[in-house]
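Help needed: design a sequence for this.
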């Protein structure tokens, strides 16, 4: 399954992956130290090693998920002058609320409240035009502006 990202969100995702990889290296060092200590205390329960092991298993699982997402990611450059809501569009509703339709996983800090294109509201907005009505969870909204 492909995941679509704005470039700034993919950069954050790749940074997070590098941080997790560094965490694995650090946990490996800690596990080695704990193993050395457990040989000195042979026969005693070594909860420290178990905690480190469990943390490594969780971190490795997160790395696998991020790698899968990154491998299946597509960078999308927002259209500068689109008349329809698309990835990267900022949508203003007639009630004054403003949303930005963002990546599969919205990661970077943005000035405007972001919603993922794959969220229910994001799906309802994609392809809509200015002055078009949108129904979402039983409520009706009118798109006042798209930028």
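Sure. Designed sequence:
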């Amino acid at each position: 399954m492909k995941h679509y990202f704005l470039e700034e969100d993919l950069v954050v995702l790749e940074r997070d992956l590098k941080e997790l990889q560094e965490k694995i290296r650090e946990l490996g060092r800690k596990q080695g130290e704990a193993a050395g200590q457990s040989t000195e205390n042979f026969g005693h329960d070594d909860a420290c090693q178990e905690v480190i092991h469990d943390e490594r298993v969780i971190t490795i699982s997160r790395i696998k998920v991020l790698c899968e997402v990154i491998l299946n990611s597509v960078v999308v450059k927002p259209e500068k002058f689109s008349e329809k809501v698309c990835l990267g569009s900022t949508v203003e509703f007639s009630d004054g609320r403003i949303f930005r339709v963002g990546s599969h996983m919205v990661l970077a800090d943005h000035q405007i409240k972001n919603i993922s294109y794959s969220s229910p509201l994001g799906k309802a907005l994609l392809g809509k035009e200015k002055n078009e009505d949108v129904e979402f969870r039983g409520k009706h909204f009118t798109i006042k502006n798209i930028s």
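Residues 3-74 form one domain.
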